[in-house]
């Protein structure tokens, strides 16, 4: 697939490709994310292993509990990806002096700095969609463990009901946007590393192996980007998850959450659940990028066919 297919795609193509890719990836790895969140959200309690967490969920709640909270990110993923990929593409074009096809002077020349800046901008803008979606998801994922009854409270059964409950009990801003500041703090460095790693590894694979191994390069680059982003930013994710798992006011901001967690449980708290994040990362992001690139290729062909039909109707020529 030509490298400019995705870069030149309109926002609606990013939304369609991102939605489908996100659904594929989430269905595969959401159970691992649920285990990760449960491990991260254990406050003032001894850490438990991933195996113990899985066993506890199975015994107390059944297998469907692993998919609790999938609705919010499933619905939001298209918009998150549309915002993230469009922002990344437009910022990269701006820094290269290519915005609007003007061919102006580049603002930056170093491709690595351009990649980092584009990714950071994508992380910032998409956080305002991702934050509320992950707030609802996280509350659902820890609902049983927070009440300790083995059952999920009625008010947290389902994505829409959970979102309505949070807005009713805490107000729209605090109910939905608690932890969004922490999401911004995580997403800016995470997306900066994510996009740069993917582009660098994919281009290296294309150069070393040629177009015949394009699919393998996408899988390797996408999976590696997912792993690298978590290795670089995982402690920030722990803090974000804790802020989003509990009612507004539990923590007085990002630093307060970090310091309270450190004093109560030691530095090991910031890598709790890391093994589940890494186990989840490679298959999730490999499947997301492979699906996304495939859908972008299909949509590019569709746009070409539509353009050819318009030319035929206007000029009688293809």
Total number of strands: 0
The percent range for strand residues is: under 5%
- Counted by DSSP, the helix tally is 12
In whole angstroms, the N-to-C terminal distance is 22 Å
Main sheet makeup = none
Provide the succession of SSEs: HHHHHHHHHHHH
Which shape, going by the Cα principal axes? globular
Extract low-pLDDT stretches. none
Give the overall pLDDT as a whole number.
Answer: 86
Report Rg: 21 Å
The helix content is: over 70%
Question: How does the helix and strand content classify structurally?
Answer: mainly alpha
Per-chain topology:
Blueprint: H1 4-7, H2 11-40, H3 50-61, H4 71-96, H5 111-141, H6 143-147, H7 159-170, H8 172-177, H9 180-209, H10 214-245, H11 254-265, H12 274-315
Short description, anyone?
This protein is 76% helix and 0% strand. The chain has 318 residues and is mostly helical.
Structure commentary:
The protein has twelve helices and no strands. The protein is mainly α and 318 residues long.
Tags for this entry?
single chain, 318 residues, mainly alpha, 76% helix
